[in-house]
Amino acid sequence: MRVDRKLLVLGAASASALCLVLAGCGIPQSAAPAKTSVGTEIDDTLVTTKVKTALLADPDVKSFDLKVETRKGEVQLSGFTDNQAQIERALTVARSVAGVAAVENKIGVKAENVSVGNRVDDGIITSKIKSALLSDPSVKSFDIAVATSKGAVQLSGYVDSLGQIDTALAIAAKVEGVTRVDNEMSIKK
Question: If you average pLDDT over every residue of the chain, what do you get?
Answer without folding.
Answer: 78
